[in-house]
Amino acid sequence: FSCELIKRVTGIPTPEMTPHLSVLRDSELLYERGIFPQATYIFRHSLTQEVAYDSLLQKRKQEIHERIGKAIEELYAERLEESYEVLAHHYSRSENSEKAYQYMKLSGDKATQSHSPWEAFRLYKEAIHALNLLPDSEQRKRRSIEVRLSMLPSLNRLGYVEDTLDILQEGERLCRELGDEVSLARLTSFIGLAYTAQGNTIQARKYEETAFQAAERTDDIQLLTQTGFMLCVSYTMDGLYSEVVTVAPKIIAWIESSQREVEIETLGGSNAYSVLMAYYGVALGMKGDFEQGSAQCEKGLRFALQLNEPYTLSTVELQTGVLFLIKGESQKAAEHLESAIKYAEETQNYILLGLAWVLLGEAYGQLGELETARKYMEKGLKVYQDAGMPDIFAHITYGWLGIVQTDEGKL
What we know:
Keywords: ATP-binding, Nucleotide-binding. One of its GO terms (cellular component) is cytoplasm. By secondary structure, the protein is mainly α. It has a domain at 1-55: Orthogonal Bundle (Arc Repressor Mutant, subunit A). The chain has helices spanning 3-10, 14-26, 46-54, 58-75, 84-92, 97-113, 117-132, 138-158, 164-178, 181-197, 201-216, 221-237, 241-258, 272-286, 290-307, 310-327, 330-346, 350-366, 370-387, 394-407, and strands at 30-33, 40-43. A hairpin with a 6-residue loop joins strand 1 (30-33) and strand 2. Helix 6 packs parallel to helix 8 (138-158), helix 7 packs antiparallel against helix 8 (138-158) and helix 11 runs antiparallel to helix 12 (221-237).
């Protein structure tokens, strides 16, 4: 904390404050960095800070936290984004729940942009908690929906961990209460994927189809694209490739006719045009049309490479790798899957990262390198376990791992 910040929070003029700071510094309770009055101060020991803090009454703590928040807003108004997290911390410990919500939400948005999904998830949950402390109103309910929509990219990368389904279902309830059909379609679509993560594919497909049907009743190309892509993911998970081949090209054509190939993103935050072509290509390959399937994957990958957006590239590279696995071109599959792993690690896309390692293991299994194959598959399993997410690809993971271990003679 700086001298100016201390002065604003305490209201003590600089001449009177100086001897107090000197005593604390000389007593080795504070460490001084820089030269007064531009100096900043930190506690030398965390225990000292804890004792000083615990000696204050709760009401006094809340008042000080709010004063600090206001002082930071005034001092750093021109670069406030750098202090979102600090402001969220202080206002969440004050009685100003309105400001606590604002800065928790902004901090969550910032964490999302920097590819930190766990941090974003935590901050958005804190934002919801702050909202719940405010008086009940339509504005509060709309904000509660808004923050849940902001959470979607992080939830997608984390694999629907912890109380994800409860969070989304509360958003669904609020959308129905307010008659917000557009937000309802988006949340319904994500609830479908949450059910997929739990292995309940029948319920998942019901939600995805409901969301897409709702979008079809609108003229909103972005909503149609977002819910349609989620439906294609659900169909892919269920092995319903004929359905993907029916739905995906329609959505791709809608995007092209609107000339919004670059603009429209999926609810998870990737470029919809690129990833749809990749899923379409894999579905064509699964139906035996490798020529058209390869053309779609290559087109999607070229577009994604032009955008140079790592989250999109992680998905498109993985799907392209899947297509080469189906074709039996294991070396090419491995190259694309290794690229997918690189991009997934960069964006902390854990749900895709685990699958990419498992698929890379399958590629090496096809190449006859069984020890490497097993090592990579086990690494994929560990990604899911370490991230605390359900292994929604368990049927693939354990099936292929069993085949590799059988080939190794480890029955």
